[in-house]
Amino acid sequence: MTGLDLVSMQRLVADLVRSSSPVDDDAAQSAIAAMVATGDARLTASKQIEIYREQFFLRHLEVLRDDFRALEHLLGDEGFGALARAYLAAHPPSSFTLRDLGAHVVSFVASAAPWNEDPFVADVARVEWAFVEAFDAPDDAAIEAASIAAIPEAAWPAARIALQPSMQRLALEHPAHDYRILARTSADAESLLALATLAPPEPRPTHVVVYRAAGALLCLDVEPSAFALLEELARGATLGDACERVARASGQGEAAFDAKVGEWFWAWTALGWISRIEA
Fold first, then answer.
1. Which of 79, 152, 164, 225 has the fewest CB atoms within 10 Å, counting from its CB?
2. What are the φ and ψ backbone dihedral angles of 219, each rounded to 5 degrees?
3. 179-198: b or e for each residue (b if 16 or more CB lie within 10 Å)?
C-alpha cells in the first residue's frame, strides 16, 4: 500500500464500494484497489474489495426491498435489482440511519428512465414511502369530541386545525394503495404468481390518507373535496378560508358543502386525525 492518509484511503475505499460494476472489470479501479488493500495468496486486492462492494449492495438492496416491497413485485426481482443499483449510484447513502436510504426513490423513479415512462411506478413508490413516513412520524394526542362540541359557532371560521403528524396525503393517478395491499399480503405461491401477472390498474384519480392509529399503519380513500380541505388545513389556512376555496372549486352549494364538512369533521375526529383546534 502507498502512504495514503486515513481520510484519503477512506474516500478511495468508499468510491470502490459504491461502484456499480465489479472492481476487476475496470483497470483503474483495480489499480486503486491495490493502493488500499494488500491482497493475499487466496484473493487479489481487487477481489478483497469486491467482497465489500457486493455486501454493500446486498445490504442496501435488502433495506430498499423492505421499504418498497410492492415496487419489487411490480418490477420483478431482476428489474428491482436494476433499479436499486441505479438508485444507489445516483443517491449513495448519506445518513447515519438506513431508515433514510429510500428518501429519494420517489423522485428518482419519476425522473430517471426507464421508470419515468410508467406513472404507476411512481404512484406505487409514493404509497410505499408514505407508510415509512407515517411509521416514524411524531405522536400527538387526538382531540376529543367534547372539545370540538365546546367551540362556539362564531369561532369556527377563524379556527386553524392541527392534523396528526403521521398523516400522509397522496393524490395519485392510479389506486396504487390497492396494489400495495395485494403485494404485501400475498404470501402463498399461487397468490404471488397471480400478482406477478397482474396488469397495473387503469388510471383513476385517487386520493388517500396514510396514517398511524393504535400502533397500526392504515390507509383510507377520501373523496376529492375532503382531500382538498385537508390540504388547505395542513397548509395553515383558517377553516373559513379553506371551506370557501374548496367549495368554490367543487361547484357545490354552500349548504350542501357545509353539511359535508360537518360529517367529515366527526369522521376525522373518530379516526384521530385532528390533534387540536386553535379557535
1. 152
2. -140, 135
3. bbeebeebeeeeeeeebeee
